[in-house]
Each structure stands twice: as structure tokens, then as C-alpha cells.
Amino acid sequence: KSAYNCELYWLRGDFMDDNQYNNFLKQIEIWNHNEEFEKIIEALTEIPDNYRSYELNMLLSEAYISLDKYDEAIELLESIEPICEDDDENANYFFCLGYCLWKLQTFVKA
Q1: Could you write out the DSSP letters of every residue in 62-86?
Q2: Whole-number Å distance between alpha carbons of 87 and 66
Q3: Which among 25, 39, 63, 97 is least buried, having the fewest CB atoms inside 10 angstroms?
Q4: Residue 9, CB-side half-sphere exposure with 13 Å CA sphere
């Protein structure tokens, strides 16, 4: 059984309403606080790649990083590119990507 039944909340690429999306984000926050990163990965990968929002992809990449799955995080980050107008969010994207590259000792790319 899934860590979190996304089917209840996610329908055709979107959550049915903002309340359900916010509840889903709260659950991810709880798992993150409890260091249950595998549950975050399982729940977020239930949503097809092309339907995950930028925010959900960033949360997924951070879960990969927390489990030292740097290759998976890099692959995901390179597939989404920063699309935010928010400088803080862009900084987080580049920090995550640079951190993974540094951990894999690919200093030229970092």
C-alpha cells in the first residue's frame, strides 16, 4: 500500500481543491520533520512526472538529497529547470543542484 494515497487528492494532474493540496503539503512536512524521506518519495512519485508541480518536484529532489540519492536528485532538477520569478526559490534550486554535484565531486559542473 502507498505511503499516502494520492488518488484521493490528485485527479488528472491537479489536486481537487486547495485544501486537499495544502493537506498533502502538511503531510509531506510531517514526514520531512520525522525524517521519513522514503514516504515522501513514494507519495510524490505516484504523481506522473508531467503532472507534478514545480513545488512538488523541489520537495521530491530534497527528499532524494536527504537520502544521499544525488543522481536521482540531479536528474529531476535538470528536468525541471527553475521557472520561478522568486529569487529565493531560484536560489534553493541552484543550491540543491550545486550541492548534489559537489557531493558527487563533479566540481566542473558545479
Answers
A1: HHHHHTT-HHHHHHHHHHH----S-
A2: 23
A3: 25
A4: 17
- The Cα–Cα gap between 72 and 97 comes to 11
Whether residue 40 contacts residue 28, with contact meaning beta carbons closer than 8 Å, is answered with yes
Residue at 31: amino acid letter? W
Scanning the chain, the segments in alpha helix (DSSP H) are 18-33, 37-45, 54-66, 70-80, 87-103
The reported pLDDT for the residue numbered 106 is 82
Tell me the torsion sign for CA atoms 103, 50, 24, 92: positive
Grid cell listed for 60: 521530491
- Find out whether 32 and 63 touch, Cβ atoms under 8 Å: yes
Q: Which residue, chain included where needed, has cell 550541492?
A: 99
Amino acid at 73: A
User: For a pLDDT cut of 70, what percent of the chain falls above it?
Assistant: 78
Whether the predicted model's global pTM rises above the 0.85 cut:
no
